[in-house]
């Protein structure tokens, strides 16, 4: 089952979307919003599944699904927490600035509490008041949970995952050092994130979803050129079950909690930092990482951060090269 | 106008509460939940004000207002961000551990993104799975905003403040050093916060609300003994207009955003760390601060963190010693 929220009011209008993303059907008679569906998932999910089946069979009224008209599946949420599960990425960033990485980083997930009061739709421009802030994309996998009890095990956490999707976790890199130095984590450096047009249930992903990971390539284009083709199922040190359980260690998680993987990142085949796609590598899922690799290999970062008018495209494909979650495509500044 | 949410479902049932907190009237015909009221505040607030006036005049059906039956006014919210506006508190904590405090801390607010997917009601027990986590109370002032545009000025931010209340921002002190060392801020160390039974509009507070500060004593009792009597209007380095503008620097804030003051803290009359109430001082609004003062003055902290069965009471009074926002009263572990 694939679910989306068409732009309407603060919370959107819930629709089920056909497998090929061509059609959708209004789900308001089941739940007006995706949050409402998540709040009563056990009762409503089977009804939404039936609607989805009917839509795929073409036996109910349907409308074309236009990704441009979609909001984030949860246009606002009660929780967004982002992990840093691809520890390779963290190790590279620290190597570039000459900082040791504690061994605990391989065993204890990094996670920050993000702002969730308003998200960007998949085709919304990225607002950027000041290029000097160092705007970056971060292509990531996300999951949406149901209610998770405090102290949940990894298996309980995995069982609570309701939906899977993609995000562009926009970051203002030049504001990060000052904020981290203050010790309270990210705040101004993390403006609104964008999400893929549809979120998908794990069972619909079949074998692509296993061991708490999405086993597909995360495609990232920058200004029309291939930029990232990392395999999201590889080098993910902490699977989503572990990330959700980490988040729930001392408190319950409310239904509709979104948990992110952090920037997807693969080691190069030789075990070193990833190479650009033009050099035969899988590229990168954020600009900070290519700048880090440039710093390590050449002494200085040459790739600039995002400028007004730059375009970012993030998606994942099925075996026939059709987007699974739709496409995030954003222009900086709009 | 005073607003509360009676426990019902995930978001409570909105009521207006009489000035003396004795009575309430259902507001569901105006807005089913406080979030719904905040989402359409300009249109709905005058209707709620009329209901409030009618309630105070006793001309509409009313029911007794039982604080025990109240949820947090926003039982879950789209954003909870907590400042550290009483810089005196930060300076003391750093002094105790021998860390310098950067001068910027006096000019640039500290703020962290908190979890907002589920809050405790004012009389709910504080869940605590492990006393070794070092459970602490933090008595604070909070405001709830309407929509705030990105880059809002302090004056715009002040004008966007819809409601004022109190919180007990529960903290797990022994988990904080490890989390801050990882650099991503608080997460597991900040379980669910509790809020006062009612939130109050700034105009209803009259002269107690001025310059973006609440000019009342924040009362804190611990196990039935006076523990804190700090004046919330004093030593607040950053007023709420400044805190809200800080939060909105790079992004919009959605209606229903809750912004906290951080632990209220007063310097002693001689300019040094505050003294206990028994020693003629105004006491403390969290255990970490008394432990810090003990460390500075005696070399070691002697006051323990909260234990199962401890009770915490937080409130503020009008001139006749009646609670303005109702009373937060929680038992650890329940």
UniProtKB/TrEMBL annotation, chains A, B:
Residues 1-76 form the Fumarylacetoacetase N-terminal domain. The lineage of its organism: Bacteria, Pseudomonadati, Pseudomonadota, Alphaproteobacteria, Sphingomonadales. Residues 80-318 form the Fumarylacetoacetase-like C-terminal domain. The keyword Cell inner membrane does not apply. The keyword Hydrolase applies. PANTHER family: BLL6422 PROTEIN, FUMARYLACETOACETATE HYDROLASE. This is Fumarylacetoacetate hydrolase family protein. GO terms for molecular function: hydrolase activity. It holds the Pfam family FAA_hydro_N_2. SUPFAM superfamilies: FAH.
């Amino acid at each position: 089952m694939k679910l989306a929220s068409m732009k309407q009011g603060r919370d959107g209008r819930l629709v089920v979307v056909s497998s090929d993303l061509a059609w959708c059907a209004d789900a308001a008679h089941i739940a007006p919003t995706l949050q409402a569906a998540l709040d009563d998932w056990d009762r409503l999910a089977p009804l939404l599944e039936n609607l989805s089946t009917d839509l795929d069979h073409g036996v109910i009224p349907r409308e074309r699904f236009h990704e441009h008209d979609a909001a984030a599946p949860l246009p606002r949420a009660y929780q967004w927490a982002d992990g840093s599960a691809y520890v390779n990425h963290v190790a590279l960033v620290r190597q570039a600035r000459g900082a040791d990485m504690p061994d605990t980083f391989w065993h204890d997930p990094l996670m920050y509490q993000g702002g969730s009061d308003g998200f960007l739709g998949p085709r919304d421009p990225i607002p950027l008041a000041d290029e000097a802030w160092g705007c970056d994309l971060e292509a990531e996998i996300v999951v949406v949970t149901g209610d998770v009890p405090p102290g949940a095990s990894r298996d309980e956490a995995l069982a609570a995952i309701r939906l899977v999707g993609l995000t562009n976790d926009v970051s203002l890199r030049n504001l990060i050092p000052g904020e981290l130095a203050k010790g309270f984590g990210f705040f101004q450096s993390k403006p609104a994130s964008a999400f893929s047009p549809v979120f998908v249930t794990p069972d619909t992903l079949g074998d692509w979803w296993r061991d708490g990971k999405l086993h597909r390539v995360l495609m990232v284009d920058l200004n029309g050129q291939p930029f990232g083709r990392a395999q999201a199922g590889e080098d993910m040190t902490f699977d989503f079950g572990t990330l959700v359980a980490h988040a729930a260690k001392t408190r319950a998680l409310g239904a509709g909690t979104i948990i992110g993987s952090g920037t997807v990142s693969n080691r190069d085949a030789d075990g070193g930092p990833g190479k650009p796609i033009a050099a035969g590598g899988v590229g990168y899922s954020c600009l900070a990482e290519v700048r880090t690799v440039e710093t390590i290999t050449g002494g200085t970062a040459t790739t600039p951060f995002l400028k007004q008018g730059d375009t970012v495209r993030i998606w994942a494909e099925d075996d026939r090269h059709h987007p699974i979650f739709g496409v995030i495509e954003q222009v900086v500044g709009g």
